[in-house]
Amino acid sequence: MPFSEIYDVVVAGGGNAALCAAITAARAGRSVIVLEGAPAFYRGGNTRHTRNLRCAHDGTAPTMTGPYDGGEFLDDLCRVTGGETDKALAQLTIERSRELIPWMNKAGVKFQPPLGGTLSLGKTNAFFLGGGRGMLNALYRQAEALGVVCLSDAPVTALAIEDGFFTAATIQYQGAAQQVRGRTFVAAAGGFEANIEWLKQHWGEAADNFLIRGTPYNRGDVLKMLLAHGVKPVGDPTQMHCVGIDARAPRFDGGIATRLDSVVFGIMVNRAAQRFYDEGEETWPKRYAIWGRLIAQQPEQIGYSIVDSKSIHMFMPSIFPAVQASTIGELAGKLKLDTAALEKTVADFNAAVRPGTFDHTVLDDCRTEGLAIPKSHWARRIDAPPYYAYPLRPGITFTYLGVRVNEESRMVLNNGKTSGNMFAAGEIMAGNVLGKGYLAGIGMTIGAVFGRIAGEGAAKNARN
Amino acid sequence: MPATDLPRSAALVEADRLMTICNACRYCEGLCAVFPAMEMRRTFANSDLNYLANLCHQCGACYSDCQYSPPHEFNVNVPAALATLRNDSYAQYAWPRAFAPAFARNGLFIALAAAACVAAFIVGFVAWRDPAVLFARHAGDFYKMMPHNAMVALFGAVFLYAIAAMALSLRAYWRDINGESDLRAVGEATGNAAHLTYLGGGGGGCTSENEKPSAQRRVFHHFTFYGFLLCFASTSVATIYHYAFGWHAPYALTSLPVLLGIAGGLGLLVGPAGLFMLARKRDAVLTDVPRRGMDTAFLAMLFLTSLTGFALMAFRDSGAMGILLAVHLGVVLALFLSLPYGKFVHGLYRYLALVKYAREKRTAAFVE
Fold this sequence. Notes:
The structure holds two protein chains of two kinds. Chain A contains eleven helices and 19 strands. By secondary structure, chain A is an alpha/beta fold. Chain A folds into two domains: 295 residues, FAD/NAD(P)-binding domain (3-Layer(bba) Sandwich), CATH 3.50.50; 152 residues, Alpha-Beta Complex (Flavocytochrome C3, Chain A, domain 1), CATH 3.90.700. In chain A, β1, α1 and β2 form a beta-alpha-beta unit. The longest helix of chain A has 21 residues. Chain B is mainly alpha-helical. Chain B has a domain of 229 residues: Fumarate Reductase Cytochrome B subunit, CATH 1.20.950. Chain B has 14 helices and two strands, in the order αααααααααββααααα. The interface between A and B is large, with 35 and 36 residues.
């Protein structure tokens, strides 16, 4: 049985950060066990839904256009976080992101150049061949080849920690509670985005209408235990990354395929058939990211993106077909919205549209005039039947609350000391670097960089 | 939104459902040609799906990489769905249509064809010649059993029929998928086919056994394919020897036709045996389970063609030659007869799909 041994490194979690830590420690000759809470198919938390990592590079990376220097990376990070980032850790992330492609290649991960729909990220992001699950499979093969014990369906239910010093984890495995003892601990078990009860503490009953983009296993149990054991928190506990996704998506694990890019091409209305925000405010990718929160604040947490036949083929194909009608009134009926209200909203919008030259790739001059809520770009009349609508709900990707770490990825305690043998990597500590906002691929960068740092630290610590 | 009003088979409906999901995800776009070709479309007509199905080399990489594969509720299994549709498409384009059902129970069809052909040769030898001739020693002279002209007439006719039937099937397919080609596309597709570029899972290899990709399937397919080509070359050289130079069989062991035949024959033993072993180990979830007999039957026919050929060569000076010749010719005749109605056609449809892809990736744009 794998439970008689005292492991040099016990890793809680089974995604990118966990595997990077496990592989690094195993290469240093340490005995490592990986405890993934989800069943094998769902292993890896949000990693299974990712597809790239962001890295600084000199332009010679074979699948990337470039270069992307560290200064530019840091500017991007500071811009999206509004400065809510630990500067030292941010610089560490960026500096060590340079090593990731060769390191991943050595671990068996392959990359590909981006094709349709993602070309704009070719300079900054390296794309995994086959996406996040393909990358994860490669990391697992590497870890297992190095002798790492990888358990799935093995959720951590308790941690034995004294004065910030880890001695054992209790897991539920094959129907029984088991003790996994270790000399060091790496927490890489993600956030609490799938924990509806926890989300309700901050969002109330509205959380019942949130869709979770990852698996139902991202419950934040390990995070909660660490905070209860006096580890210092980081990040806003009320905040989450939240995008507008197709309301017909499954409650959990709909991932990337449920994304909708239609919003900027038409208008967005709420349950009362009223517009509630400027659909032309910003450009991709931010426009994609703001709508989750906006919809979360609407009645019943639902919105309807309405476009006409001029626009229906201008955005990425959607997984679910649009609701289609030959008149706005008919569309309202199909969406169960107030017919007169929707007709008036569309008529008012159409009347306010000023002439301009439409170009959705730039902030063009197509805008409305005289509306309480303007549409400042890409405003075209909705007048070419058939009309189409997509229902949208908030899709929760990740939460920001995490544990505080230092440059060694070592956990910082509430009393200001650092833990004797506990490290954290990935989403569970991403809030140190990404306190707010989002930058495509940054989660995987933080996971891989701090996974490796945690693995190095744990490997060293385990033999001291 | 199917672009056609025709009723759709379950396989077409499923392929359409999956391509719609995949086109909203696109994580697999680096694995092979199927996904980039998909990204050039927003909706999928039947002909689009038949094209994509034949573009798929069934490496399985997209299944193990997919975050939506079973048990996920989206139940995305592209290799199996496209394998099923691909096998449907062979029947759909078969000429004449009356023979389309041969694809449904292909193992049985080919087994019966092989048995009937072998029996026909044995009966033929006995009926047209003295039964004693069948067991006599002929010092390797096959034509004592069957005159050269008779052999050429029979096999030539069957071979020409097979070519014509396949050409008509391919024409129907090419028209249906709106195939366009040019010299560059043909060159690129030929390179891709010769190299089996898209059986590589984008570089990771083919998923044969579990989630660990490997190059084994590609290697054994190369043995099979190039073995087949070498055997074809052997026959072609022998034909030239016969008609152009008047050098008649049997040829010496060191002659070009025999050397080519030996090399090709070894390929046809190693390749099909390897592919068969890998197919047995392969996760059935990746395949069109009810029609796996089609693969096995074709592998068996290639293997037997080679095995009986070697047996004939080894014992051509003995009294067993007559029976061995009947068995070998019977197997080869059955192979020729079944070419248009068995797994052999996969290479032809796939090649045309590769030509179309090579051209459209230069001329079409991704849908964004």
